[in-house]
Every structure is written in structure tokens, then in C-alpha cells.
Amino acid sequence: MAQLLGRAKIDFGGKRFRTKKGAKLNIGGIKRTPVVDTDGGVHHTEEYMEATLDCIVLHTSDVDARAIHDATDKTITFIGDNSLTYVMGNAFSTDPPDFTDDGEIPFKFASNAARKQ
Length: 117
Known about the structure:
It is built from 1 helix and 10 strands.
């Protein structure tokens, strides 16, 4: 029986993030939008979409949120416990992180389409 994804490890520029469960990876690539013509025929348009990763990094004393956000052209590796690994090349943080005293920093990253490794 095949194992389902239950946990993921996230490496950012060669350093492992301490993250909470629930990281979300969109591998990017071609997005297709349906278009219906007046005769009921369904067609589509295509547009290229970026890959995105949403994750919550645990805010320990060795985490520099400014440095993570300021970094560009990084490699992010999403390593699933089901043996699937995806790599986001030339990645960057999209928004300055908001964090509070709950010990969590939500980050969103973007890159070219992620590739399966």
C-alpha cells in the first residue's frame, strides 16, 4: 500500500526550516481557463503560473526573518515523508512576514515551476 504525504521538511538555501505541519506547495506551471463558445463548445486559454510555498516557520532565536525575506535566488526543497521531493529554483519571499509573540512566522515563497526530483 502506498504511503500518503503526512509530513514535509523544507530546506531553504541549504538550511532546514523548523516548520509547523500544514505547509502548502503549489508546483506551478500551466493554468488552463475554460472558455465556452456560443454553441456550447468548451475551449481553454493557457497562462504560466509561478510555483508557491506557504509555510509557518517556528520563531526560534536563530531565525532571522529579515534575512529570509531579503534573500532572493534561493533553492527551496520540499521533502515529503512519502519519498516525493520537489525543488523550487530561484525562489524568493513574496511578502514581508508578519509575526507576533505566538512563536510562528508565516512565509510565502514563489519561484519558477517546481520540478520533481
